From TrEMBL:
Keywords: Membrane, Transmembrane, Transmembrane helix
Chain ranges passing through the membrane: 6-23, 35-54, 66-88, 100-121
Protein name per the record: Lysine exporter protein LysE/YggA
Superkingdom of origin: Archaea
Length: 124
């Protein structure tokens, strides 16, 4: 059995667990600025984020060339400014909607990855 297929099962299960964890989460009691600084710090020092750039990020640059970098970072800049602005502006009213949409996306991808793993393992 190929070991990477087991990672499908582990990853899918983890995403499903995250989906339910997101569904149970509550808004932070810290002020907006503190929340943003904590989130930014966690994002910049996250080992998964650093690993992604070393692996997938370099692969993306190799595959699409250096011209992808400005567009990709432009999208990131829009995301990290527009999304927090919308959440801060309309956060109280949107928090349940954001939580449910995040749950649906995570559960869908988790189930997909889990089923793909079981399918790959069953066809060895």
């Amino acid at each position: 059995m190929k070991i990477r297929y087991i990672f499908y099962i582990i990853g899918g299960t983890f995403m499903i667990w995250l989906a339910f964890d997101v569904l149970k989460s509550k808004l932070s009691s810290r002020d907006r600025k503190a929340n943003y600084i904590v989130g930014l710090t966690m994002g910049l020092t996250n080992p998964f984020q650093i690993t992604w750039w070393i692996t997938s990020g370099l692969f993306m640059i190799q595959e699409f060339g250096l011209l992808i970098v400005p567009g990709f970072f432009g999208g990131i800049i829009i995301w990290i400014t527009l999304f927090p602005f919308i959440v801060n502006r309309y956060g109280k009213g949107l928090s349940n909607i954001i939580r449910v949409i995040s749950f649906i996306i995570l559960i869908a991808f988790g189930i997909y990855i889990l089923l793909k793993g079981f399918f790959l393992i069953s066809h060895l």
